[in-house]
Amino acid sequence: MIQIREMQVRDTNAVAEIERQIFSQPWSRQGFLDAVNLGNTVFLVAEENNRIIGYIGMYLAMDEGEITNVAVAPVERCHGVGGMLLTELLKIAENKGVARIVLEVRASNDSAIRMYERNGFVQCGMRKGFYEFPKEDAYVMVHGH
């Protein structure tokens, strides 16, 4: 059974390893440690059988949030883990009074875009050449007003 919970310091090695497997410019373990220890963040992990299989992170500023990271281990994809993480993050954001959440997503990442749309995000802009390795545009998506 998959459990969604707050990211702890002990999770950062596993999270950084998933990050390295997926992203061309991954966050370091130290980046996750710093984020977990800040007071203005929400970082969650998905855990199954004592193994981290995904994570999501958001920075908070007043009543706004910015989702910085969403990742699911490659062997665990297409099982709804990303949606579970996003749903839990949205609940926490609502409880914290967050009115608006923004994120960037690769323009070619159709599965992520569909997941965000299913959860109430809409495209509101584009950042040309936002991503490196490979160079690609990002869609800006927003939840709330």
What is the structure about, briefly put?
By secondary structure, the chain is α+β, with helices and mostly antiparallel strands.
Describe the structure in your own words.
It is globular, with a radius of gyration of 14 Å. The mean pLDDT is 92. With 145 residues, the protein is of the alpha+beta class. Helix content is 30%, strand content 41%. The chain contains 4 helices and 7 strands, in the order βααβββαβαββ. The protein has a single domain, classed as Aminopeptidase, CATH 3.40.630. Helix 1 packs across helix 2. It has a 7-stranded mixed β-sheet with strand order 1-2-3-4-5-7-6, with helices on both faces. A hairpin with a 2-residue loop joins strand 3 and strand 4.
CATH homologous superfamily assignment: Gcn5-related N-acetyltransferase (GNAT)
- Which of globular, elongated, flat, extended, rod-shaped describes the shape? globular
Q: Count structural domains.
A: 1
Mean pLDDT: 92
Structural class: alpha+beta
Helices and strands, in order, run as EHHEEEHEHEE
Q: Indicate the CATH class.
A: Alpha Beta
Low-confidence stretches: none
Q: Give a short account of the largest sheet.
A: 7 strands, mixed
Helix content: 25-40%
Distance between the ends: 34 Å
Number of H/I helices: 4
Task: Work out the strand percent.
Answer: 35-45%
The CATH architecture: 3-Layer(aba) Sandwich
